[in-house]
């Protein structure tokens, strides 16, 4: 913002409905493969995770880089709608004030908001793994003897 | 004979360094590339993998690997995968001879974004990611060959001075028990190494005291004739929490995490038997 402008931080909450076992989908920023983590473990307050490993390629990055494209789109849509709400509020106030004046009239149409899709994970055919080190779980597409799978939390091979 | 733990440790360390390299911040220049190159050359497992792949391969990356067309650089990837790996490795060698800013090289490659970080990361991924994937896959394949028992659902159990193996099958269960004092010794030896490493680190004294206390509790219980499950579990949980939120500023973070992971794996097996 320019001089005199105000910068404010607004926090939005995004809800993702997990599959029938409470697993939510994540996407690797490197190989773009999808995997699932149990929501309860991922949001465990005793273990605040700042990084995740991709179970397929094993590379590590910050948690926020693992959100799926759907989640990022929803975050953008929520932020866009918030911005539209704020602008509509400002224009509404401005129009009310101006329309009290008998010389100047203001006519305006409220800006349209975008639809926000519900994020819901379906049950899929992944195999569930439990890490022997940290005890957390993940669901991945796995073919025994063809590839290795890594724990998303501590990075060891499973 | 190389053991699987060595492969696991190498894989974890390499994946961390490779991730750091692919996420290089433009202000860091080629620092992470240099670190990765040093690790590749100094680690015997990885240098052997590379040597086996590119020995007797005649390919000079300078001739055609990177070409400039219409202002943008593009990669001419050889069909032969060994030539591709050799080209990347030789190019990596040249790029890491001295510390330098890689923005100039990186911006030669087309990128959708105008951010310097994106431009640098786009270049690193385009050029070096195939080498990273090749090394990770090769280490994984070696590990899979070394642990065929995983596919056969074997469970290994360490009971302090006892070592037991139970083979689970659909119809029959065969159990073999023999004595082995190596398990407890390995735990104690790992604890001694970790204590020294953590004590040498400049981290918050309270965090340091907590983790040392957990390590000492584990040692005490492992050496005890009647180890207490609850005490061990508490210490195990404490170590896991330390791994999950390893503080900033630890110089040997990767090595400490690897050793702690080895240790917690051993403690987990130990706990399974005294429960």
Number of helical elements of chain A: 2
Mean pLDDT of chain A: 83
User: What quaternary form is this?
Assistant: heterodimer
Q: What level of helicity do the residues of chain A show? A: 10-25%
Shape of chain A, please?
elongated
The percent range for helix content of chain B is 55-70%
Say how many strands of chain A there are.
Answer: 8
**What is the N-to-C succession of helices and strands of chain A?**
EEEHEEHEEE
Q: What Rg of chain B, in angstroms, do the CA atoms define?
A: 23 Å
Number of helices of chain B: 11
Structural class of chain A: alpha+beta
Brief overview:
The complex is a heterodimer of chains A (158) and B (275). Chain A has helices at 39-42, 69-99; strands at 16-17, 23-27, 34-38, 51-53, 60-62, 119-120, 127-130, 137-140.
Architecture overview:
The complex is a heterodimer of chains A (158) and B (275). Chain A is of the alpha+beta class and 158 residues long. Chain A has helices spanning 39-42, 69-99; strands at residues 16-17, 23-27, 34-38, 51-53, 60-62, 119-120, 127-130, 137-140. Helix content of chain A is 22%, strand content 18%. Chain A has a 4-stranded antiparallel beta sheet with strand order 2-3-8-7. In chain A, strand 4 (51-53) and strand 5 form a beta hairpin. Chain A starts with 15 loop residues before the first strand and ends in an 18-residue tail after the last strand. Chain B has 275 residues and is mainly alpha-helical. The two termini of chain B are 34 Å apart. In chain B, strands 3-4-5 form a 3-stranded antiparallel beta sheet.
Task: Write a concise keyword list for the protein shown above.
heterodimer; A: 158 residues; alpha+beta; 2 helices; 8 strands; 22% helix; 18% strand; elongated; B: 275 residues; mainly alpha; 11 helices
How are the secondary structure elements laid out?
The complex is a heterodimer of chains A (158) and B (275).
Chain A: E1 16-17, E2 23-27, E3 34-38, H1 39-42, E4 51-53, E5 60-62, H2 69-99, E6 119-120, E7 127-130, E8 137-140
Parallel strand pairs in A: 1-6
Antiparallel strand pairs in A: 2-3, 3-8, 4-5, 7-8
Chain B: H1 4-22, H2 31-42, H3 44-54, H4 61-64, E1 66-69, E2 72-75, H5 81-95, H6 103-106, H7 116-146, E3 154-159, E4 162-168, E5 173-179, H8 182-200, H9 205-223, H10 229-244, H11 253-274
């Amino acid at each position: 913002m320019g001089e005199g402008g105000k910068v404010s931080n607004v926090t939005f909450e995004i809800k993702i409905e997990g599959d029938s076992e409470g697993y939510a989908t994540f996407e690797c920023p490197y190989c773009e493969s999808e995997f699932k983590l149990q929501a309860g473990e991922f949001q465990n307050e005793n273990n605040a995770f700042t990084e995740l490993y991709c179970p397929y390629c094993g590379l590590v990055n910050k948690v926020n880089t693992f959100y799926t494209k759907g989640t990022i789109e929803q975050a953008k849509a929520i932020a866009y709608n918030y911005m539209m709400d704020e602008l509509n509020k400002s224009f509404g106030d401005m129009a009310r004030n101006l329309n009290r004046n008998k010389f100047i009239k203001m006519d305006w149409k409220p800006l349209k908001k975008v639809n926000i899709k519900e994020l819901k994970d379906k049950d899929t055919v992944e195999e569930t793994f439990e890490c022997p080190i940290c005890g957390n779980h993940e669901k991945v597409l796995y073919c025994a003897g063809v590839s290795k799978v890594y724990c998303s939390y501590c990075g060891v091979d499973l | 004979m190389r053991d699987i733990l060595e492969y696991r440790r190498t894989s974890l360390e390499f994946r961390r360094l490779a991730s750091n390299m692919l996420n290089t911040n433009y202000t860091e220049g080629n620092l992470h590339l240099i670190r990765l190159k040093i690790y590749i050359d100094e680690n015997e497992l990885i240098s052997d993998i590379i040597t086996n792949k590119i020995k007797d391969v005649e390919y000079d990356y300078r001739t055609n690997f990177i070409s400039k067309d219409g202002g943008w650089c593009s990669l001419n990837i050889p069909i032969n995968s060994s030539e591709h790996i050799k080209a990347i490795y030789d190019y990596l060698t040249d790029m890491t001879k001295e510390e330098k800013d890689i923005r100039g090289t990186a911006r030669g490659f087309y990128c959708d974004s105008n951010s310097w970080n994106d431009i640098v990361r786009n270049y690193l991924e385009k050029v070096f990611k195939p080498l990273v994937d090749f090394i990770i896959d090769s280490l994984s394949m070696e590990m899979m060959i070394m642990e065929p028992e995983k596919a056969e659902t074997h469970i290994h159990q360490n009971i302090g001075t006892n070592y037991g193996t139970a083979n689970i099958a659909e119809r029959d269960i065969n159990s073999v028990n023999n004595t082995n004092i190596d398990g407890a010794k390995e735990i104690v030896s790992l604890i001694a190494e970790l204590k020294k490493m953590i004590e040498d680190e400049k981290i918050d004294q309270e965090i340091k005291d907590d983790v040392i206390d957990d390590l000492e509790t584990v040692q005490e219980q492992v050496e005890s004739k009647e180890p207490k499950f609850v005490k061990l579990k508490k210490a195990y949980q404490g170590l896991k929490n330390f791994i999950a939120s390893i503080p900033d500023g630890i110089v040997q973070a990767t090595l400490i995490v690897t050793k702690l992971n080895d240790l917690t794996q051993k403690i987990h097996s130990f706990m399974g038997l005294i429960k």
